[in-house]
Amino acid sequence: MINKNKKIIILFLTFFLFIGFSTKVHSNSSYKIVVLIDEEPITNYDLLKEIAYMNIISLGKIAEFNQENINKIAIESLIKERVKKKEIKKFDISVDDTLVELEMDSLIEKISQGNENKVNELIENGIFKKDDLFEKISTELKWNKMIGMLFNEKVVINEKEINEKLKKFSENKKINEYLIFEIFIDAENQTKLKKKLEETLLSINQVGFKNTAIKFSSSESAQQGGRLGWINESQIDSKLLEEIKKIEPGKVSKPIAASSGFLLLKVEEKKTSEMKIDFKKDLQKLIMNERNKQLKRFSINHLNKIKINSKIKHL
User: Fold this and answer.
1) Is the pTM above the cut of 0.90?
2) Domains of the chain
3) What is the widest separation between alpha-carbon atoms in the chain?
4) Which of 33, 67, 164, 239 reaches 20 to 30 Å from 92, CA-CA?
């Protein structure tokens, strides 16, 4: 209860800090351009709203960084979003508003940790509104739909291997589950990737895994501190499961080579539960998980290629 109250206090303190900054921006009546992406501007007001969004989505953890780091994280997030929007326009992609609403409700429930009213209050009273959140989620859904269109035929799934894996697990009465956090790092080339990996490992020692995920991870889980949640063994790739089994609770894995980058995993907790399998349903779920995992890699690679070909100028 104390931890929950502490989080709420941090959220409100940061909220009032942002409100003060916002008032200052408005009183000066001058929005400054901080970044140009193919001549399209990102302003200091865009930056302020992005920081407010990250404060909400990270449950106040973003406030633990200094202002320079907060700005860097927010600018990188805005650049990715603008690049995605530009690419989406080429394909005239749309998504149903109802689906966006459902995703938005699901996200608020996920980040609120049982206190949705406080999160909704911060959104309604802050400069980052529900309409802004709706737009962000809509962009992500459109991007994911576009990635599916572009790369779905390149996804290769060994259904026989997945079937055999599930059969093996179904023979057991118990199954291990892991509370997993992730950091995925990527870069335009190997030199930058090596440097980023070194910075990430140093950051984990200095500020912890969750804060490092917010700052460095390219995964969608980044702004939730890299949290993937509870995952059972049957849902994990065999090679990755071998690595996870080596990690003691509370410890971090060695860098795991992945497509175009490195993966770092932290096992927060481990438990054993009763094995309950709906074979047909779970098989389809595992196939879908594998498809999404491969599409995620295509998504990261495609975004990096677009960024490389974009003219990005920091002012």
Assistant:
1) no
2) 2-152 (no CATH), 159-308 (3.10.50.40)
3) 68
4) 33
